[in-house]
Amino acid sequence: MKRVWTDSPIIKHISHLLPSPNQILNNELNSISNQDLIESIEPFNELAAYYAQMAIKHLDLNQQHHPLLNIYTLSGEKNGLDIFLGDDAIEQIFHSICEYLQLQYEQQQTKDNSFENYQLRIFWLTDNDCSDILPILDLLLNLSQQTGLLIDLHHADSDPIQLANAQQTFNTHITNQTKKLSIIYDETIDLYDSKILEQIPVEPFDIIFSSNQLQGNQDLINSLVDLRRLLVHNGLLLLLELVHVPLYFDLIFCFFDQWWSSSDDNNRALNNIQQWVILLEQIEGFHIIESTTNQNESTFIISQKTISKEILQRLDERKNQLWLIFIKDDNNSFGHILSSLLPYSNIRIFDIRHSTLDIICFGISVLLTTYKQVSVIFAWQLDQKLLNENNDDDLALKQNEELIYGTLSRIFQIIKKSSPYFYPFVYVLTDHVQFNNNSNLNITASPFIGLGRSLITEYERNRLKLIDRQTSLNNESIFIL
After folding, report:
1. How far apart are CA 163 and CA 299, in angstroms?
2. How many domains does one find in the chain?
């Protein structure tokens, strides 16, 4: 079986080629423990200087005492948390991921030539200085240039000033670079606001990176569930969080409410590695969870979302998705085989023999308001021959016009009238309808393709696709898209 592309290519997500947490950590990423106070002296001195500098700035000093400010200097533009959440580990993690994908590309070249039609979608959630991300951008740019991979980096920051600064910095950095790397800037995403998170599509990212965003979260379980909902199956969740730290940290962060446990003011709110693992196991959906501690007492927790169909069907993000399949419903039909392959528990079938327009209109209207994301596979045209038992071309054309054409048009009318927040993905399947020199053409159904192409221009962009099933002269099955 092969595919012949006669239209814009379908973009394929690359999550199935991502490395496992074990493969990431085993790629020259050392776990360094920093239990001794002696090893913490250098970062502690830098942090002490930082807070001393802050204190002096608020004193009413005359000009002759201003040189005091110059005594306390920090390297770079780091803030207090940046000193302890080192950037090297982040760069090493992404270097491992990019290196692994590069290897996959080299192995895939013999199969489908390149990654040109693949897309990597990254959600970056951090309050760190935007300059910290530049080494990661360089890694992604190099990966895209070497492989042709499309990369979308979704950069979220609730501070509009920091976000504007990041946009200016990134645009300057990637000027005249590959057009295959695009950056989306978002200041609306808030892990603590479920209503905002509801406005994000289901499972839109392959990798989510979060740096110190969950510390002190009073509803940590739900926040982790929200992050899992944003991940496609086999996607990676990368969390960089402080864990067990020296006692003198209490002197530094004691005035922050988030530093202390809400249930016991004498205990820190920090989770240790075991607690993070237990939390991620508790919410289900992650089949591999690994961690590594860097030299500054922050820990990388790397989790990979499961690919198990049985587990995925139990998750909220899958329960909120629905597939509508318009097909002849029996054990030997194409629709029955197709529905068995979908990793979703919510599937509704409209049988071509028993479904009326009233049933369809009412059903779709209700389902669009019940589920967050609906996908439609319209394949009634595949069963046209079953309706045309007398091999009467006029009868076949009439049935197409009244039943198949009318139903497809009504589906789009209902969707337009309902105006859902996320418009359904619609896949229209046909049989020997699109012209191909290597196969027989079913000319009686050609107007159906004309209807489909007209709907493409009026429907939401990239949400309607025509797929034609054909058999070539040498009996090889192909799909024309």
Report:
1. 26
2. 2
